[in-house]
Amino acid sequence: MREDNLTVGGGGFGHGFWGQPTSSIDWCEENYVVSHYIAEFYNTVSSLVIALFGLYGAMHWRSIGHEPRFMALWASIICVGIGSALFHGTLLFSMQMMDELPMVYAMLVWLYIWIENETETPRKKYLPAFLAAYGVFWTFVHTYLGFATIFQIHFGLLVVAGYTFVGRFAFKTQDPRIKWFSVLYVAPFVLAFALWSTERIFCSSVRPFQFHAWWHVLSGIRFVGLPALCVA
């Protein structure tokens, strides 16, 4: 049971290499206009920016030798970028799951890191198991239902929770560098969300600007300051 082919402003189901789209949502960008092999060209290419920033973070992390939980975060970000490219490139439901599920996994890892950093007695014994179990539960629920709107609300709540930790930390710290990195992490995503929302509401009017592609780019840029925040 899932929604099929929920358009956002009539992106259009053009026919291309991957055939009829099976995803539960079709974004504003017109399909198969630039390439016969890529459904949403600009959304696909811009998704790789997220993967590149994830790779940058992983290489930086490896060079300074920090804990596996941080490498797990960067690995999940890389998976988000690759999964997003696969989804937008094909508009297949299976590839949609390769995009949306890693987004949730990345936020669960992010929340784990912040909860560990915030508490006076870190290394919560059952926290990783609980978050992993929740991730498995969500995987089955979302794969079966596939409701785009429910996913967006769910992911939004996870993001709000994560940014709540960042905001509290930025407010308490006296280190100006950390405050700056907090702004660098939050501001691009706020702008990205504004563009994403604008495209959803006014798709036909703003389609030439490819706001969803900019959502990807800005979402990647925010990871520049992430290493400093993680170990602060």
Short summary:
With 232 residues, the chain is mainly α.
Summarize the structure in words.
- The protein has one domain.
- A two-stranded parallel ribbon has the order 1-2.
- The model has no long low-confidence stretch (mean pLDDT 86).
- It has nine helices and two strands; from the N terminus they run ββααααααααα.
- It is mostly helical.
- α1 packs antiparallel against α2, α3 packs antiparallel against α4 and α6 packs antiparallel against α8.
- The radius of gyration is 18 Å and the shape is globular.
Q: What kind of sheet is the major sheet?
A: 2 strands, parallel
Which strand order does the major sheet show? 1-2
Mean of residue pLDDT values: 86
What's the total helix number?
9
- Structural class computed from helices and strand pairing: mainly alpha
**Tally of DSSP β-strands:** 2
- Proportion of beta-strand residues: under 5%
What order do the helices and strands follow? Answer: EEHHHHHHHHH
Domain count: the total is: 1
Could you estimate the helical fraction of the residues in percent?
over 70%
In whole angstroms, the N-to-C terminal distance is: 44 Å
User: Whole-number radius of gyration?
Assistant: 18 Å
Low-confidence stretches: none
Q: What's the shape?
A: globular
Family: Belongs to the alkaline ceramidase family.
Pfam families: Ceramidase
GO biological process, one term: ceramide metabolic process
Cofactor: Zn(2+)
Task: Name its key features.
single chain, 232 residues, mainly alpha, 2 strands, 71% helix, hydrolase, membrane
Please write out the topology.
Layout: E1 6-7, E2 25-26, H1 41-64, H2 68-90, H3 93-118, H4 127-145, H5 148-172, H6 176-201, H7 203-206, H8 211-221, H9 226-231
Helix pairs in contact: 1-2, 1-8, 2-3, 3-4, 3-5, 5-6, 6-8
